[in-house]
Amino acid sequence: MHDHARLMNTRTDVEFYLVRLVEVLDVDLPGMQTPRFILRSRFSNVTLEQLSSDELRETANYLEAKAPQLFAMWGAYYSALAGVRDVDDFDKQLQYISATDKAIAMLSFETCVQMDQFYFCWAKGAFRANYLFSRMLKERQ
What we know:
Elements: H1 2-25, H2 35-42, H3 48-51, H4 54-66, H5 68-81, H6 90-107, H7 109-122, H8 135-140
Helix pairs in contact: 1-5, 1-6, 4-5, 4-7, 5-7, 6-7
């Protein structure tokens, strides 16, 4: 019963974080640009070297200052998955797959990749969990 309650909490948490991210991604920032637009224009098709550049860090700092929920919700999403990732239990594996599929369905795969890369850039690579969506960051681990 305890595992079932934990799985339900994970599902509820993931849903909350993703719904909130969808809302925050489409809020107009100064200059009439949305966080989604900035992520797409600045954090797509970048190299690891570019993610470590002062220029992209400035953009990441701007996004974090103007829409701090982006960083917080993406980190919370990863935290919610911590208990169901890389576990040898069918129900937990199913929950993990469902949570990653839900992120892709709600945000788009490209936005998930961009969120990983924004998160890495802003945290200056200090976030040590396994990235789920950015192939470049997965290969780096």
